[in-house]
Amino acid sequence: MAYKFKEIAPGTYQVENHTIIKDGNGQWIANPPIEKPSLQKAFLDYVKGLK
């Protein structure tokens, strides 16, 4: 399944019903937490591509 990530602010992304931000320590925090393994992998692949 392809997920569509939308940047809503610098370091803040939205996908499905999750908002994901990068905190001051460089850690990604999802609200609500991502429990679906396929979405977790898709997000990690997405942020690796941002560098």
List the helices and strands and how they pair.
Layout: E1 6-9, E2 12-15, E3 18-22, E4 28-31, H1 37-50
Antiparallel strand pairs: 1-2, 2-3, 3-4
Describe it.
It is a single chain. By secondary structure, this protein is of the alpha+beta class. It is built from one helix and four strands, in the order ββββα. The protein has a four-stranded antiparallel beta sheet with strand order 1-2-3-4, with no helix packed on it. A hairpin with a 5-residue loop joins β3 and β4 (28-31).
Radius of gyration: 10 Å
Distance between the termini: 23 Å
Rounded mean pLDDT is 93
As a percent range, the share of strand residues is: 25-35%
**SSE run:** EEEEH
Oligomer: single chain
User: How would you sum up the major sheet?
Assistant: 4 strands, antiparallel
Number of strands: 4
* Main β-sheet, spatial strand arrangement: 1-2-3-4
| Global structural class | alpha+beta
Unreliable residue runs: none
Give the count of helical stretches: 1
What characteristic shape results from the CA principal axes? globular
Helix content: 25-40%
